[in-house]
Amino acid sequence: MKAWEKNVRKVTPYTPGDQPNRPRMVKLNTNENPYPPAPGVAKALEAFETDCLRLYPDPKSSILVDALAEYCHVKPEQVFVGVGSDDVLALAFMTFFNSDRPVLFPDITYSFYPVWAEEFRIPFETPALDEEFRIRKEDYYRENGGVIFPNPNAPTSLALGRSDVEDIIRHNPDSVVIVDEAYVDFGAESALGLVDRYENLLVVQTFSKSRSMAGMRIGFAVGSPLLIRYLNDVKYSFNSYTMNQLTLRLGVEAVRDEAYFRSTVDKIVKTREEAKRILGEMGFCFPESCSNFLFITHPRYRAKELYEALKKEDIYVRHFSAARIDNYLRVTIGTDDEMAVLYDFLRRYAKRQNT
Amino acid sequence: MKAWEKNVRKVTPYTPGDQPNRPRMVKLNTNENPYPPAPGVAKALEAFETDCLRLYPDPKSSILVDALAEYCHVKPEQVFVGVGSDDVLALAFMTFFNSDRPVLFPDITYSFYPVWAEEFRIPFETPALDEEFRIRKEDYYRENGGVIFPNPNAPTSLALGRSDVEDIIRHNPDSVVIVDEAYVDFGAESALGLVDRYENLLVVQTFSKSRSMAGMRIGFAVGSPLLIRYLNDVKYSFNSYTMNQLTLRLGVEAVRDEAYFRSTVDKIVKTREEAKRILGEMGFCFPESCSNFLFITHPRYRAKELYEALKKEDIYVRHFSAARIDNYLRVTIGTDDEMAVLYDFLRRYAKRQNT
């Protein structure tokens, strides 16, 4: 190792899901929305004058912040926007978790949390989910340097009720508590209504799932004005202009079309409920999903083998090799047609296993 | 202060230049390009199908990385892209400057450097520019935890020759040396040709100035494959998908149109040379500019007063209140028409001062 390499921050980077791009593939591996963004997004793109791109965007991202404040019924100074919720969460780890005490998050959860903790040299502990993959709220009632959990949790798909979430917040007045609501729109109760009561609560959401905008990279956080100011200070010390002009304009349109948003979410929920029935009949087991994915296992299949067999057919789902969940697959809810291709293959797979 | 606030990373954030947005304003305050992006950018925008926005972008940003590798005559594994060069530089500070020894950069330079150093708790020292605002290369021939300087320097507009840059790199085999070339296309010699000779050299450039894309947020770094791998590891541990789909497509078009790029740069250089003559005749003094701005002072004017007077006329330039440069104004080179408005006001201002 050369001398200059000694000063390098060494990390084990997060591994994102594969992003294959093959014609006719069925892509159910990264929890994207199977439906396009709201029609207003295409119209805003058409109306956009590229000549303005010579100018810097508004560093305050005001048009998007204002649209989100209105949508969430909070003041603009309670809203923070970033390059996907990953950017928001990374900056929140950096801003709020500067303690010698460990940050707490579940052992089975979004696999980026330990990566951020390692990147920023933050100590952490991971209380185990119970046997049914549920968060035990009492595990978070002890001294810590911060608390973060997704609700619904990923990849387990299970949600805590709002009163349980509030219990965790109430027991942690001395830490910042982050509720990561990437999947909340598909059936869980949001903690947004609690931000005016708890100054140390940060609720994070994303446009990547329920708003069909993964390709645009928009995430946001809502909290008390004081919390958001601290987060903005760190953000402005990192990169003044994170949201480009197109992101701001297109993002606003995605927020405004409430009817389209509801209709897409409803379609996905309907397909999910049908998937539960069909996969259940095939012998798959899964926790009760409040999200746009199912976390499935089968008593007679090895998940890794099924994953490989699906991949050969250009059907992509996600497999995690971590302990306790290595015999599960995370399957994003696609369109009815995409799900039909999946069911069809699984029926053939079942026959193959029986012969 | 509440208990949770004790764990907050407290910083003094960077103050970006004002981004006023008034009809008929003359905006010469943030070194934007007065000309629109390459025509291919508008075409790519028109051709873009918003339906794909439901999918994540390519986390490797391959189309843009490949286009830049070809442009810079390096391998794709030598190119890193980010959300403006600020994102690239922030991640580079975080990745490469982890030492107890101080990082070195000039006392008068891009004002974001001390902000990043503070944000990441990096010790630093700032060798003073000489009396004529020149970097003294010998100041960087001592033990350090890293070296960074812009070439041309900002806001002074002066450039070091390539052999001086190479001298600094050659004297620092044990540190990463970052050459920040935001303004290089307007008349300085790039260090890009040195990256294959020095494994510890990182050259950073941006689309915000010479490529008229400030509103799109694209910056990039070129270095050895090892250096770029370290930088990518930290980036993937922060946010896997920083570049959205539109940024990637539009960025590629901006790189490809070499003829348009050259013609806009040439126009700006021509306007700058004329500005030197006209402002010189008005009694302004300034260092020899290799950039798209002039750093002007006048023996009979107070810079801050002139700044305010210009602002009243909707002509925006940049004033810094730091010691040694508080009687200077940084004036971006605009179109000939915009510059004519500036000259016209300055002539009236001169008369006012004489009466």
The order of strands across the largest sheet of chain A is 2-8-7-6-5-3-4
Tell me the radius of gyration of chain A.
Answer: 21 Å
Give the chain pair forming the largest contact, with residue counts.
A-B, 88 and 88 residues
Q: Write down the oligomeric state.
A: homodimer
Number of discrete helical segments of chain A: 10
Give the SSE order of chain A as H and E letters.
EHHEHEHEEHEEEHHHEHEEEH
Q: Could you give the count of β-strands of chain A?
A: 12
How does this model look, in words?
Two copies of one chain form a homodimer. With 355 residues, chain A is of the alpha/beta class. Helices cover 35% and strands 12% of the residues of chain A. Chain A has helices at residues 39-47, 62-72, 84-96, 113-119, 162-170, 225-236, 245-256, 258-281, 303-312, 336-354, and strands spanning 26-27, 79-82, 103-104, 124-125, 146-150, 177-180, 201-206, 219-222, 293-296, 315-316, 318-319, 329-332. In chain A, the strands form three sheets. The first copy, chain A, has a seven-stranded mixed β-sheet, sandwiched between helices. In chain A, helix 5 links the parallel strand 5 (146-150) and strand 6. In chain A, 55% of the residues are buried. Chains A and B meet through helix 1, helix 3, helix 4, helix 6 and helix 7 of A and helix 1, helix 3, helix 4, helix 6 and helix 7 of B.
